[in-house]
Amino acid sequence: MLIGHDSVPSDQTLLMEQPIEKCLSISPNRLSMLRRLGVYRAYDLVSLFPKDYEDWTKRSVIAELRDKEDCSFCAIVRQKPSIFRKGRLSVIQTVLADETGVIKAVWFNQPYYRTKLEVGTTYLFRGKIKRDGKSFEVINPNFREEGTDEIPGIRPIYPMTKGLTQNNVRAWVERVLPEILSELPEPIPVSVRKSEHLCSASYAYEKIHLPQDSSEIEEARKRLIFEELFMIIGGLKAIKRQKASEGNAKSICPDRAAKESLKRFIRSFPFKLTEDQERVFLEISMDLSSNRPMNRLVQGDVGSGKTAVAAAAMCLCAVCGHQSIFMAPTSVLSYQHYMNLKDLFEIVGIRSDLMLGSTSVAEKRQIRARLKSGETKVLIGTHAVLSEKNEYNSLALLITDEQHRFGVRQRGALSADSAEDLHTLVMSATPIPRTLAMILYGDLDISVIRSVPSGRMPIETYLANSAEDSRVYEIMKRQMKAGRQVYYVCPQIESDEESEGIASVTEQYELFRNSVFPSCRVALLHGGMPSDHKDTVMRDFSEGNVDLLVTTTVIEVGVDNANASLMVIENAERFGLATLHQLRGRIGRGPHRSVCILKSDSEDELATKRLKTVCSTTDGFVLAEKDLELRGPGDFFGTRQHGLPALRIANLYRDAGLLERISEMVDRIFDKDGGFTSGESARLFDAFTRRFGREMDNPPL
Ligand code: ADP
Ligand code: MG
């Protein structure tokens, strides 16, 4: 693997590479808190960018203060502060005034301020303003006496973790920063810095932490946003180029007879491939025909028919005498793939096998013998398929279904383990906006299936609240009477005191079984159940032996039951849009009209807007863009969650245009250097590994 311990520049003579505990005298306890913020080396500390600033230099007068804003203002203390208790809190209160007005000041649990504040003295206050009816309050303000105390200028506010204070982090940064400014990597070529009007690395890192005024912050931010995107895009493109330059994968070129078998296989599907499916399969075939390993992502919304494309790719390998692995994240899904594909493969004489964690030792032994001899051409299963004990006759292709359920580490581990490089295909149903895909899958080629097979009825999605329960139950009852099946999704397994108002599967299950639908077949499914038990429930549901499945999000992944036509999702506001979209993709898979009901009692404006967005479109890509716009990139498709570097300062929605531009710039640089081992591209890749190497190595899964 390219990114690994060996390749991370480990120049220990550089101060910035030193472990942070060597640069600061700091207790083990504090050290572990810093690690929680992602700080291991000195470099990580100075890359911990402020999320905001406290500006003591911009002063308002009391009449100008506005609700919810952090403000600084000069005022005189008008009253002796009073102290009283409110439950377990001690509260200090006084009145502040300037020539434009008065404001109440309130401090919680800071009784010593009572003696510090002198009536009649003027202080500079800073704090959050809160509107209370017609009057205003300032809550827990900091203050300095004018002329006596030192007045801070602009102070950084850092991302925090429990146990640390802003002042801790500020002091550490001030200690470490000056010593490493001269060592910071400069990945951006001079020509680019000039044309983009970017300041130097050392200026940017200094000013982002210790600015004198807001224009310095702006200059620093501009440079650091650019640098972050430039490094990530550059690093990922370098990885992609390196992969593409290796030439020891099997080249799959079917002869006439092989082509005939392939055609026969595709014709045996109970449907005709859509244009998108055909195009993506063509792209894959082109990749496979080369001895450069394929690294392709197939992105297609739920129900867009990715399985058929994967099956055709495996068939192509098999008819050329090579083997494939098809890996899925759960045993239920693996089993389903196997059952769907086994007979189809047999038609053209291809043997497939299923290997799960629960497969017996004896059976595994038999499968292994068939893999080794080459009799089995397609191996379907969970993680178990990656067993080191599996030996292959001629393994060519590895397909990972529902890639977003696996970590990035797997992506590397798989191909690194095989002596020969494999063609790899990853499939994901999570539609991601282009800009996000560039970061998440920047090292892969991407094929998109946008259309959904025709003849499907679009899923209708509605909002409801708990006052409408009886209506919802009525709809459920009607569907079950008509022979359809229903999913009822809740966000948690059991209720506890803290989660009042949040539905749990166990409670809903009891309620439905005992009082609401006593004559229906109700089943319970959640991640806390033993896996063979889960499999049985899923199978019962697929085979139509269960009318109503009360479940957590465990059903989110790939399960296919064409008879399920209704889904109710409790506390929908608690789920990300991606999850909601994935969940509702479980219905609408057959000829029946399908309805998804999102239940929510949330009064939060943004939450309601998000849910309405889900109701308004069934196009996952549109949804992804909308969500990126509403909430920023973290929510729909958290990059951290996928083991790729978290953006510390850039924002994929706001900076989308810049990202595209940088992508083109990086291509030009690599083209010019003819690779990434020399000149500007080498420096870029070095900077990337320095900054993100650890994160790429240890995805937080
Ligand atoms: P996903 O992309 O979510 O994995 P699947 O591969 O599970 O989707 O396909 C969803 C359903 O659509 C399956 O029941 C499959 O048989 C069906 N299907 C796939 N391709 C087509 C097609 N071209 N025409 C009609 N139905 C199709
Ligand atoms: Mg699928």
Characterization of the model:
Helix 10 (275-289) runs parallel beside helix 11 (306-319). Among the domains are: 15-53 and 160-210, no CATH class; 58-152, OB fold (Dihydrolipoamide Acetyltransferase, E2P) (Beta Barrel), CATH 2.40.50; 459-617, P-loop containing nucleotide triphosphate hydrolases (Rossmann fold), CATH 3.40.50.300. It has 24 helices and 22 strands. It is of the alpha/beta class. The chain starts with 19 loop residues before the first helix and ends with a helix. The longest helix has 32 residues, at 214-245. The strands form four sheets. A seven-stranded parallel sheet has the order 12-13-11-14-15-10-16, with helices on both faces. A six-stranded parallel sheet has the order 17-22-21-18-20-19, with helices on both faces. A five-stranded mixed beta barrel has the order 3-5-6-8-7. Strand 12 (351-355), helix 13 and strand 13 form a beta-alpha-beta unit. Magnesium ion (MG) binds next to helix 11.
Keywords for this entry:
binds adenosine-5'-diphosphate; binds magnesium ion; 19% strand; alpha/beta; Rossmann fold; 22 strands; OB fold (Dihydrolipoamide Acetyltransferase, E2P); disordered N terminus; 701 residues
Radius of gyration: 30 Å
Mean pLDDT: 86
End-to-end C-alpha gap: 19 Å
Under the CATH scheme, which architecture of one domain would be assigned?
3-Layer(aba) Sandwich
- Assign the structural class, choosing from mainly alpha, mainly beta, alpha/beta, alpha+beta, or little secondary structure: alpha/beta
List cofactors, ions and other ligands: adenosine-5'-diphosphate, magnesium ion
| Total strands | 22
